[in-house]
Design goal:
The structure holds two protein chains of two kinds.
Chain A lengths: L10 H16 L37 E5 L9 E7 L6 E2 L4 E7 L2 E6 L4 E6 L6 E3 L3 E6 L37 H9 L18 H11 L20 H4 L35 H13 L4 E9 L1 H16 L7 H14 L5 E3 L6 E3 L5 E3 L1 E3 L2 E3 L2 E2 L7 H16 L5 H4 L4 E4 L19 E14 L5 E14 L5 H16 L1 H7 L2
Parallel strand pairs in A: 12-16, 16-17
Antiparallel strand pairs in A: 1-8, 2-4, 2-7, 3-6, 4-5, 6-8, 9-18, 10-11, 12-15, 13-14, 17-18
Chain B lengths: L1 H16 L4 H8 L3 E6 L4 H14 L6 E6 L4 E4 L5 H4 L2 H6 L4 E3 L7 E3 L3 E9 L5 H15 L5 E3 L5 E3 L3 E4 L1 E5 L3 E9 L4 H7 L7 E3 L12 H4 L5 H16 L5 E4 L10 H9 L1 H4 L6 E9 L2 E10 L2 E8 L7 H11 L6 H14 L4 H15 L3
Parallel strand pairs in B: 1-2, 1-13, 3-4
Antiparallel strand pairs in B: 2-6, 3-5, 6-11, 7-8, 8-9, 10-11, 12-14, 14-15, 15-16
Helix pairs in contact in B: 3-10, 6-9, 12-13, 13-14
The chains are: A alpha+beta, B alpha+beta.
C-alpha cells in the first residue's frame, strides 16, 4: 500500500489515519509480514514534493516454537541427553535427527517436528531431561503451518504436478518441501524416484541421481516425433508404489527438456590431523635440507635370474623373497665405503655424526598412509635375514601395529615406488638422515651388449637425493656405481659380503 | 504342519526369485508378523540388517522377529567407553572384532553359543516385558520346570541369580526395536576375561556396564542348544502375538535385497563410529620410566586426544621438549597407530641424542599402553 498523500485533508481521512496508527500500536500478532509507517512530515501541500517513505520491518514475524520432549513410552518420565546432532544456528528440516537420549538401556533418537533454525538448546550433555519439557527452540519460517501433536505422514503434492498429467493413488510419497520444489523445477514425478532415506523418503541426492540417469533418455522435442515419457527407474522403484496409476503424456505434446542437473557439490575444509599432520611436520623439516638429485639406471638381468633360483629355497623356509633384500644389502655394503652417506648433522649443521649402525629404512604404503619402518643393523644381517625382517615389518604395517621402535632410528632410506609405478622420482630426505634412494619400476628394454648385439635387459631406474651441505655429486656418483655393480653382477656381492 | 513347511519353502523361494527387495517381500506377503533368521555370523552385517529393518521397513502394522548369532565379537552400547568396558589389548590380540551398536545398554560378548533376538515393532506397540515373556515362555516350553524369570531391569536370570540374558532397545520416530542376548553355550572363560578392563584411571560419564555372574542354559538342560532355542522362540512369538508368518532366512550382505545395507555395515565398522562416538573422558596414568616418576593426564573427546599433560620431574627432559611432545599429541586419535606416527614425526624433527631418544621411547610405550 503506497503512502499516497492527497492534498485533501478531510476530516474523515484524518480519523482513519489515527485509527490505523492505534491499530498498529496495539497489534500483537506474531504472523505479520510487513507493515508501513507514515512519516509525519510527508503531509505536504504540494504533490510535487511528496516524500514516500516505506519502512518495512520484520519484527516478530518468524515464530520461535518450543519443541517439547514427547512421550517415550513405558511410563518413562525422564531421560539423559547423550548427544546433540545440532547446535544453535543450524538449519534443520522436519524429521532430521536432533539428539540422542538414553533411558534405562533404551537409546532414543529425537527427530525434529518442524523446518527451521535451532535457536536454543535447553540441556547439556549428560543432563536429565523431563518428558514434556522443552528440548529446543526452533525458529520457523512463519509460513509453515503448525502440525498437530501427532507425527504426520505427508500427503503427496498432486496439485503441483498437474502439468505431468499424473495421478498418485494410495501411496504417500515422503519428501521435504525443498526436495519437492527441486523435483517440480526439474519436472520429475516423485513416484518415479527411488527414495533412499528413512521409510523410503526421497532425498535431494535421489532427485539428482534420477536426473543424471534421465539426461540420456530425453528425446529433443519435435512436433512429428512420438515423444516417449522418461523410462521408469529400476523395477524396485515401482514395487513400493504398487498401487500407483499413471496416465501417459499424450504423444503430440512435446516434453520439455529437463533443466540441467544442479551441481550441489561444495568445498569441504577440515583440519589436518593425525597422519597428515605428522607428514606436514616431517616434510617441513626436510625442506630445510638442500637436496641434489642424481639419477641412473641399473641392469638387473642377472639378479632376476638369481632371485628366481633362490625364491623357492626361501619359501621352503617360510619366507617371501623379493628384490628388496638384495637392494638393501647392496646399499649397506656401499655405505661401508662411503660412511658419509650414513651420517647425520645437527640443527645448525655444526657437527656431523657418522652412524655406526646401518639402519636402512623402507618406505611402506599402508592403508593409513606412508610409513617408513627400518631394518636395524643391516651390516650384520644376511640377505635371508633381511627378507625375514621385511616380512615381519610388512605384516605389522598392514595390520597397523608398527611402533616407534621400528619407525625411528633409521640412518638411510630406500623407497620402492616402482612397485606401484614410475621411473625417475625426486625423493625427499627424511630427517635426521642425509640421503635417500627411490627405485623405479623394472622394465624389460632392449640394450646393446659387449658384442654390439641387441639383447633383452631388465632395467630399473633409480633416483638418489642427498644433502648437498655435506655430500657432493662425486661421492654420490661413486656410491651409486658401487651399488649398481653389486646388483648387476651379484657374484661380486658374494665376494664382499660381511 | 506339512502345509506350514510347504508354505515356508514356497515363501523362501519366492523371496529369492520374485521380489526385488526385502521390503517389497514384506508388503507382498501381507503378513502382520514375520520371523527372520540371518545366515550370516558377521556382527557388522547383522547389526546393519537391524538398522536397515528399523529404517526402511514400515512397522506401523507389522512386527518382525529377527534371530541371529555371531562369531566371537565384543559389542558395546551406544554411549559406552570401549576402553573402560573391555580388555582391548586382549581383544586385539585375539583378533576379536569390536562393534558399537545403536541401542543403549551395556557391553556384551557374542559367540556362536549366544543367540540374539530382536523384536521390531511400531513405537506404540513397544513392550519389552511382553517380549521377554515370549523368551522365558519359549525356554519353559523346551524345558518345563526351568527356573527362568525376567527382572525389573529387563534381564533374564536362571535359578534366581545367574544372568542368561541382557536387554537393550532403540526407539526412532515411528518404530522401535528391543533386542536381547541369550547364553546357551557361550565360552564363559573368554567372556569374563574379555569384559574386564585393565585400565584404571578412566573418568567419564559413559554408561557403565553392571557385571553379573552368568551361566549357560545348556549346562542346565542339554535340550537348550541354540537352534532349538531359536525355533522355540519363533514358535512362541507366533503364539503370543497371534501371527502365522513364515520363517524366512536372510543373507544380510545381499545389496539387491536390502539396498544400502552394505554401506550401513561399512559405517558400523568405521573408526569414527566404534571409537569416535565415545563420550568425553579423561585418563590419568602414573608410571615410572627411566627411573623417573611421571604422571600422564589426557582429555579425550570423540576418540581424539584433546589435551595432554605430562608431569615429569624437573630436568628429566628439557621443558620445551615436553611441551612440544604434548602439542604433537593434541588432535591425534586415541589409537596406538596414530600416536606412533605422531611421536615418530616429533622425534625426527626435534630430538637429538641417544639419551633423549631412549626417554621418549619409554614415554611412548607407557602412553600407548592405555590405548
Amino acid at each position: 500500500m503506497a503512502a499516497l498523500i492527497t492534498v485533501r485533508g478531510s476530516f474523515s481521512f484524518m480519523r482513519r489515519l489515527v485509527s490505523l496508527q492505534r491499530l498498529q500500536k496495539y497489534c500483537k500478532s506474531k504472523f505479520q509480514t510487513a507493515y508501513l509507517v507514515y512519516a509525519p512530515y510527508a503531509y505536504s501541500a504540494s504533490a510535487l514534493y511528496q516524500h514516500r517513505h516505506f519502512r518495512t520491518s520484520y519484527a516478530a514475524t518468524r515464530p520461535v516454537l518450543q519443541f517439547k520432549l514427547s512421550d517415550i513410552g513405558e511410563g518413562i518420565m525422564e531421560v539423559t541427553v547423550k548427544e546433540w546432532y545440532v547446535k544453535e544456528g543450524d538449519r534443520v528440516s522436519q524429521f532430521d535427527s536432533i539428539c540422542e537420549v538414553q533411558s534405562d538401556k533404551a537409546s532414543v533418537t529425537i527427530t525434529s517436528r518442524y523446518d527451521g533454525i535451532i535457536r536454543k538448546l535447553y540441556y547439556d550433555i549428560d543432563s536429565i531431561a523431563l518428558v514434556g519439557s522443552p528440548l529446543v527452540d526452533i525458529e520457523t519460517d512463519g509460513a509453515q503451518e503448525l502440525p498437530p501433536e501427532e507425527d504426520v505422514m505427508e500427503t503427496p503434492a498432486v496439485s503441483q504436478e498437474e502439468h505431468t498429467h499424473q495421478e498418485i493413488k494410495g501411496h504417500k510419497t515422503q519428501a521435504t518441501p525443498a526436495v519437492r520444489r527441486l523435483a517440480m523445477e526439474n519436472n520429475i514425478k516423485l513416484s518415479e524416484v527411488i527414495g533412499t532415506g528413512k521409510d523410503g523418503r526421497i532425498l535431494k541426492e535421489d532427485i539428482l541421481n534420477f536426473l543424471a540417469s534421465q539426461t540420456g533418455a530425453i528425446l529433443p522435442p519435435s512436433p512429428f516425433q512420438e515423444i516417449q515419457p522418461p523410462p521408469p527407474g529400476p523395477a524396485a522403484a515401482r514395487a513400493p508404489i504398487a498401487k500407483t496409476k499413471e496416465k501417459r503424456a499424450p504423444s503430440s505434446m512435446p516434453t520439455p527438456i529437463t533443466s540441467r542437473p544442479v551441481f550441489t557439490g561444495k568445498d569441504r575444509t577440515e583440519p589436518l590431523k593425525g597422519f597428515n599432520k605428522a607428514m606436514v611436520k616431517t616434510m617441513t623439516a626436510a625442506l630445510k635440507i638442500p637436496h641434489f638429485g642424481y639419477n641412473d639406471e641399473v641392469d638387473l638381468t642377472q639378479l632376476v635370474q638369481l632371485r628366481s633360483e633362490l625364491k623357492e629355497v626361501a619359501e621352503s623356509r617360510g619366507v617371501k623373497l623379493s628384490y628388496m633384500p638384495f637392494f638393501i644389502k647392496a646399499a649397506s655394503l656401499g655405505l661401508l665405503h662411503f660412511p658419509v652417506l650414513n651420517a647425520s648433522v645437527d640443527e645448525a649443521c655444526q657437527n656431523i655424526t657418522y652412524k655406526a649402525a646401518h639402519n636402512i629404512g623402507l618406505a611402506m604404503d599402508t592403508p593409513q598412509g606412508l610409513l617408513v619402518p627400518n631394518v636395524k643393523n643391516v651390516q650384520m644381517l644376511s640377505v635371508f635375514d633381511i627378507a625375514v625382517e621385511l616380512n615381519r615389518l610388512q605384516t605389522l604395517g598392514s595390520s597397523g601395529q608398527l611402533g616407534t621402535a621400528d619407525l625411528t632410528g633409521g640412518t638411510f632410506t630406500l623407497s620402492n615406488i616402482g612397485s606401484i609405478g614410475g621411473t625417475y622420482a625426486k625423493p625427499m630426505i627424511l630427517p635426521p638422515e642425509v640421503a635417500i634412494g627411490a627405485l623405479g619400476k623394472m622394465q624389460v628394454l632392449p640394450r646393446f651388449n659387449e658384442k654390439d648385439e641387441v639383447v633383452k635387459a631388465h632395467i630399473m631406474n633409480l633416483s638418489w637425493s642427498a644433502d648437498h651441505r655435506i655430500i657432493d655429486g662425486a661421492t654420490m656418483s661413486r656410491f651409486s656405481n658401487l651399488w649398481r655393480s653389486y646388483l648387476e653382477n651379484p657374484a661380486v656381492m658374494v665376494l664382499d659380503l660381511k | 504342519m506339512l502345509w506350514r513347511t510347504l508354505l515356508r519353502e514356497f515363501v523362501k523361494t519366492r523371496l529369492v526369485r520374485h521380489s526385488s527387495t526385502l521390503k517389497t517381500f514384506f508388503d507382498e506377503t501381507g503378513q502382520s508378523g514375520l520371523v527372520l533368521k540371518s545366515t550370516s555370523t558377521d556382527i557388522f552385517e547383522n547389526l546393519a540388517l537391524e538398522d536397515w529393518i528399523h529404517d526402511r521397513v514400515d512397522l506401523q502394522n507389522r512386527s518382525v522377529l529377527f534371530l541371529w548369532r555371531n562369531t566371537p565379537a565384543v559389542v558395546v552400547g551406544r554411549h559406552q567407553n570401549p576402553w573402560h568396558e573391555c580388555n582391548l589389548p586382549l581383544v586385539r590380540r585375539r583378533g576379536i572384532p569390536l562393534a558399537r551398536r545403536r541401542s543403549g545398554g551395556g557391553t556384551v560378548f557374542h559367540d556362536l553359543g549366544n543367540v540374539n533376538i530382536t523384536f521390531f515393532t511400531s513405537k506404540k506397540k513397544y513392550d519389552r516385558r511382553r517380549n521377554l515373556g515370549v523368551v522365558t515362555g519359549a525356554l519353559t516350553d523346551l524345558s518345563p520346570g526351568l527356573n527362568v524369570s525376567a527382572t525389573e531391569r529387563f534381564d533374564i536370570v536362571l535359578d534366581g541369580g545367574y544372568k542368561v540374558s541382557g536387554t537393550a532397545a532403540k526407539l526412532g520416530r515411528t518404530s522401535a526395536y528391543h533386542h536381547c542376548t541369550l547364553l546357551c553355550c557361550a565360552d564363559r572363560t573368554l567372556l569374563s576375561s574379555v569384559l574386564k578392563s585393565p585400565y584404571q584411571g578412566i573418568k567419564s560419564n559413559a554408561t557403565p556396564s553392571v557385571p553379573s555372574p552368568v551361566k549357560n542354559l545348556l549346562d542346565e538342560d542339554p535340550r537348550l542348544d541354540p537352534s532349538a532355542v531359536m525355533e522355540a522362540v519363533a514358535a512362541r512369538y507366533n503364539v503370543e502375538f497371534g501371527f502365522d508368518g513364515p520363517l524366512v532366512t536372510v543373507d544380510p550382505s545381499v545389496e539387491a535385497l536390502m539396498p544400502g545395507v552394505n554401506k550401513m555395515a561399512a559405517d558400523l565398522k568405521s573408526w569414527e563410529w566404534v571409537y569416535g562416538k565415545t563420550p568425553k573422558f579423561s585418563i590419568t596414568l602414573p608410571f615410572v620410566a627411566e627411573g623417573a616418576e611421571i604422571v600422564l593426564d589426557m582429555d579425550v573427546k570423540d576418540g581424539t586426544i584433546e589435551k595432554c599433560l605430562l608431569d615429569i620431574p624437573h630436568d628429566w627432559l628439557p621443558a620445551g621438549t615436553v611441551d612440544e611432545l604434548c602439542s604433537a599429541l593434541a588432535g591425534v586419535r586415541f589409537c596406538p597407530k596414530e600416536v606412533a606416527v605422531a611421536v615418530t614425526a616429533f622425534m625426527r624433527t626435534t630430538l637429538q641424542g641417544p639419551d633423549l631418544t631412549r626417554k621418549t621411547h619409554s614415554l611412548y610405550e607407557n602412553v600407548v599402553s592405555v590405548m
